[in-house]
Amino acid sequence: MQIKKSQKIVVLNGGWNSEREVSLASGQAVYLALDRMGYIVSKVDFSRSIYQELEEIKPDIVFNALHGQYGEDGRIQGFLDILQIPYTHSGVLASALCMDKILTRKICSSAGVKSPKYSILRKGENQKNLEKIFEIGKPFVIKPINEGSSVGVEVALPNSKFDFQEYSWQYGDEMIIENYIAGKEIQVAVMDGKALGAIEVRPKGLFYDYKCKYTPGMTEYIMPAEISVEKYAEVMQLAQKAYQATKCKGISRVDFIFNNKDGGDYQFYLLEVNTHPGFTPTSLVPKIASYVGISFEEIIKFLIENASFG
Fold first, then answer.
1. Where in the sequence of the chain do the CATH 3.30.470.20 domains occur?
2. Looking at the domain 119-179, which fold is it?
3. Out of 14, 152, 183, 278, which one is annotated catalytic?
4. In the chain, which residues fall in CATH 3.40.50.20?
């Protein structure tokens, strides 16, 4: 839809979950871009008084710069659907699906997109959990089912100690355990169903964790990813399949591990589909878009022009 400069845009950011700081950084970058482009824009720090704040401002569009629970899991999307306020990014269904890593894997598997072998650990089922850990074997990864930004992810290597009896269950009563796959971390930006490009991330840590994602200098970014032309085309196609299977909208980022080390099978394995990729100074979608000639402002304009409610 055509957006007039006289229309009010609210950038919704912040919130109270583990990704608050990332959301604030994304929101600030988006706010400044919209302001530079001449739009009437304000920022709202997401809280439980959100209804009253939106009623006071009466925005024409909400730019959803929230990350994590409540912001990208379908809840704020459903709220804005009820209020009939157009918002950016994916709707209720895609947001809820992609926030749940188990559902994402099941849906994407049906579309021909592989994931690492995994199982579900449940709090209080110690014996069953130990059996599942034994079945997966080291090295393995434990991660929350519905957190983003690599929050709560732990890697257990063959020579590392992991005492499951002391596990804190900080991120819920269910966790994923999956094979640790050594290889290149490849992330693909998909815009309106079309893959823009694939970037390779080379973190200075063991994997691309929260610190490596948001600390300048902690990760090397290779654009385009250093893989063969054939493999590059393959991962672009896989990302599009995942985007379509999960019914994403707007811009998403699809993350893979390319199993090219330690006698790997040279296949791509899906890690997650991110319906709300970041817009921080270290975020990947703006880097990929810039490489193919799409500016930060053009991304933001695309998102607000494609805002909608269900």
1. 97-115+183-275
2. Dna Ligase; domain 1 (3.30.1490)
3. 278
4. 8-89
Q: Does residue 278 carry a catalytic annotation?
A: yes
- Give bridge partners of residue 202 from the DSSP assignment: 220
274 noted as active-site residue: yes
Q: Is the dihedral of CA 16, 296, 250, 116 positive or negative?
A: negative
87 is catalytic: no
Query: Class of 97-115+183-275 per CATH?
Result: alpha beta
Q: Amino acid identity of 262?
A: D
Among 171, 232, 255, 259, the active-site one is: 255
Whether 243 is catalytic: no
The number of CA neighbours under 13 Å toward the Cβ of 37 is 23
Q: Determine which one of 14, 171, 197, 253 is catalytic.
A: 253
Domain over 8-89 is classified CATH 3.40.50.20: yes
Indicate the DSSP class of residue 254: E
Q: Which residue among the candidates 72, 73, 147, 272 is catalytic per the annotation?
A: 272
- Output Rg (C-alpha) for the chain, integer angstroms: 19
Task: Give ranges for CATH 3.30.1490 in the chain.
Answer: 119-179
Instruction: List, for residues 150-194, the tens digit of each pLDDT value.
Output: 677 888 888 877 776 777 788 888 999 999 998 999 999 999 999
State pLDDT tens for residues 202-215: 987 666 766 767 77
Active site residue 129: no
